[in-house]
Amino acid sequence: MKTAAKQENFNYRLWRYNGAPGELIPLLQSAQEHFGYIPRRAINYIAGVTAIPESDIYGVITFYSQFRLQPMGKYVIRVCAGTACHVSGAKLIRETVEDELGIEVDGTTEDGLFTLNTVACIGCCSLAPVIMINDDTHGSLTPASVRKILRNYRKMADANTDSIAVTAEGI
Q: What predicted TM-score, i.e. pTM, was given to this entire model?
């Protein structure tokens, strides 16, 4: 959705807000869709328009994992921490990503390119250990293959393209 349409959607949701308890989540979803996360100014604005205390809004944002208070990187890396990945070396894979990018879990690189998260299970247990970078799945990983994958994403960002050739480690 284009920026103007996202803003219009956000404004429309605020305009039709009538105080029903279930309407805060769609408002927050619209704000996040517009900004890419929920900035402080959006929380202040929503609180002012809806008369919902900011503390209540923060409570909802921090309760649901779908909401973010910080911008995410262009590439969101999800390291699987499921049982199959755990016993196949997911910790080493996560540590390799952390070392290579200089960030910890839930962190974003200074250049805004990568965000690192862990997830309970990606659902590709036969390919353990597995990571996802946005919608691309990479499995049967080693520290060397992870470094290569991250270099490829950096090259892709430098070339300003949004598609990556599927590697031997990717599906």
A: 0.71
DSSP strand pairing (75-80 vs 114-119): parallel
- Give domain 75-158's CATH architecture: 3-Layer(aba) Sandwich (3.40)
Residue 51 structure tokens:
């008369």
**Using 50, 70 and 90 to split pLDDT, how confident is the model at 80?**
very high
Residue matched to tokens 């944002």:
61
d(CA 152, CA 138): 13
Q: How far is CA 27 from the centre of its chain?
A: 19
pLDDT in tens, 91-128: 999 999 999 999 999 999 999 999 999 999 999 999 99
C-alpha distances out from residue 83 to 89, 140, 152, Å: 10, 14, 28
Which residues, 6 or more positions from 10, have their beta carbon under 8 angstroms from its beta carbon?
27, 30, 31, 33, 34
Question: CA-to-CA distance for 87 and 122, rounded, in angstroms?
Answer: 15
Q: Where are the domains of the chain?
A: 3-63, 75-158
Instruction: Give the model's confidence band at 160: pLDDT under 50 very low, under 70 low, under 90 confident, else very high.
Output: confident
Sequence-separated (6 or more) residues with CB below 8 Å from residue 141: 89, 93, 129, 130, 131, 149, 169
